[in-house]
Amino acid sequence: MLIFKLAFRNLFRNTRRTVLTSLLISSSLIVLILVDGLMHGMTNVMVGGITHTLEGEAQVARKGFRNDFEVEYTIDDPASVISQLEENKTLEGFGPRVIIGGMIASSYNTTGSLVYGVDAKQELKVSRISEAIIEGQYLSGEPREILIGKPMAELLEVELGDRLIITAATVDTNEITQELFRLSGIFEFGPEEMDKNLVFINLVKAQSVLGMQDNLHQIALRFMDPEDAKNKELPLFKQLTNEENEALGWLDLQPSIGAMIEMAGFSTAIVGAILFLLTSLGVINSMFMSIYERIYEFGVAKAIGTTPRQIIQLVLFEALLLALISCVFGLVIGYFLGDYFSIHGIPMGKMEVSGVLLDGNMYTQLMLYQFVNFPIYVTLLTLAAAIYPARFASRIVPTEALQRAL
Amino acid sequence: MTNLIETRDLCRTFGTEETKVTALDHVSIDIEEGEFTAIIGPSGSGKTTLLHLIGGLDEPNSGSVMLSGSNIADMSGNQLSDFRRDHIGFIFQAYNLIPVLSAEENIEYIMLLQGLGAAERKKRVKEMLAMVELEGLGDRRPSHLSGGQQQRVAVARAMASNPDIILADEPTANLDSKTGISLLEVMRDLNQQQNMTFVFSTHDEKIMERATRLIYLHDGKVEQDERK
Hints:
The complex is a heterodimer. Chain A is α+β, with helices and mostly antiparallel strands.
């Protein structure tokens, strides 16, 4: 208890220095929490953007289909696959699709497009097509409905209700076929590539127009727990993957995003390392100042029988108290700032990353480990930084130190 | 009587080859248990250096110091600290109390190092404060005590561990005459009642008058050693 008192009182002997050092330590903790929270927030937006916009958290497709969207690469035994998906309890939903390249023409213009035939009802669970509608309405199942992006509507100079003709090659006979649709909705996902090129029609209509019977090109999956999609060893993936078909999570479907997430973690580590280095220097400087100021006291303490080990313990105890006080302060401020930015966001301007539009604000995501692990790291760092000054104090020669008292 | 302190051919120099100063030059003395010894001499004669070497606060260039039959040169840093804690009490000219601890806590500190229990520490602190006539002032920090009171606390701290030897470096130098005499009386009583060994380095005639032995140092050498 006396050692605690001694350490505590020593700490507040020079309040200004202790407060400044504490601010340095707590600021590091706050910045670390915010940077990590921001990285998580950004990653979530990116992953959410990819998985929830259209791609799904995972996909089932014929092997090779993803490479060049060859129409004849349809899922092998789609009925069996769908039956397995329907029985799986880990899935929140799945969306069967056909995807085919074609021409779309209005009375005024023509452009190339990637036509998605989707099941209007099931698609609601895996993508945000319905949320992206800015004019008209989402698919209801009526055969001649068609959704196009805003830039495509401008290019084709069409409005809701106008006629559009899709021209494509049929899958069964490879003959050119044309089908008339009426524009029922205009969407805007954000990324221009999507809004300029994608077209959505009803699945059954697409299958009939393209002569596909019940065949499918792709089934997008959405899990109850999004973490399942990251698991390459997921039983469902193994169950659905065979010689013909493959089931892959978004990390495999979008390896560039996986690399970016790794980079985000790496960036946090670099920021943390820089902060830790600066904080260490601050702590070392502060502890040395504190030791130099009372060097004669250490001399006296050693003279009356304090062992070098006990001197080290005392200095480390002071550092521990400093770290704990700083962590409490840092956690409180970090929580309130993190919470504020998780609601209001930090204005960053609009940017598109890997085809995902990040809107104007970046939101932090606070997680428990930031409030448990980071303070532990900061405390250990403060203690590590105090080891050198502590060893210096323990090696003070009493006679030299005592001369300073005279 | 047994020798509590034995120094043999103690030599201590400071500075580089060019600026070498010889503080002690082959000093050999024996101090018996219960002696009230004053090491006297002009400034720079080596009094404080001798006291520091006896207390193991400094290392000699050559020669040896035996305390209670143990050669302190054979002790590690931690062993020497433990030895000082249990066998030697120090009193310094500048009091050197720990400023952030109260008088009581300064006295208690050394007993904490000894590992005594809280109840025993409190009891002994009370006794020590009574011994140096500072009852009621135990909760004051050094900055709220006079020089004389601080030196009394320093004496109590030195006594708290129940040491064999008290080494006092100019303990009355910063005190007025009356306070100095009063403090000396406290130490003399302890010497006589508890047979505690005191070694002073001093210029103070009051200490010389009360000392049972005077060792006169000059230019680092023992010039005279007189038992009264």
